[in-house]
Design brief:
Elements: H1 3-35, H2 38-59, H3 79-97, H4 99-120, H5 132-149
């Protein structure tokens, strides 16, 4: 199956992932509030995530692929830093700022970052140049998210 043939399935999975991000923020924020510690809630989340990832790696025989080697550029190992930053930040901020407000700014940051990564082909990503049409589309997305979050 080619990427083009898989596009509808990929889109559906990523849509569900997007649905899950605010749910994660609300649940982990609530856990952190109830525990009195966003860091404790983050540790619980990462502990469960580690167990699930380990089970998946065991089921797919991927354990042997886990390695740290100089052949792989160091930056490819740093994704966990961004996940940890996101989880800790949203766990602390969402209950104080509102899940919608927190995710609004996450979305704007994602749009900017994704466009930059695609434009320059950073980290081996497929290149997709930023042109006037793409800038207009991103601006419309940001405006739409802003309008959706705006209180009357």
């Amino acid at each position: 199956m080619t990427a083009n043939n898989a596009a509808p399935a990929f889109a559906a999975i990523m849509l569900l992932t997007g649905v899950g991000i605010p749910i994660l923020a609300a649940l982990n924020g609530g856990l952190g509030t109830r525990l009195g510690s966003p860091m404790a809630a983050s540790m619980i989340l990462f502990g469960l995530a580690f167990l699930i990832a380990t089970a998946g790696a065991l089921m797919t025989n991927a354990i042997g692929q886990i390695r740290f080697t100089a052949e792989i550029p160091a930056q490819f190992y740093f994704g966990g830093l961004f996940v940890a930053f996101y989880v800790i930040a949203v766990t602390f901020i969402a209950p104080r700022f509102g899940v919608g407000n927190a995710i609004f700014f996450v979305l704007v940051g994602q749009l900017i970052s994704a466009a930059t990564i695609d434009h320059f082909g950073l980290f081996g990503a497929m290149r997709s140049a930023i042109d006037a049409r793409r800038i207009a589309g991103i601006a419309l997305m940001v405006a739409g998210v802003w309008l959706a979050r705006r209180t009357s």
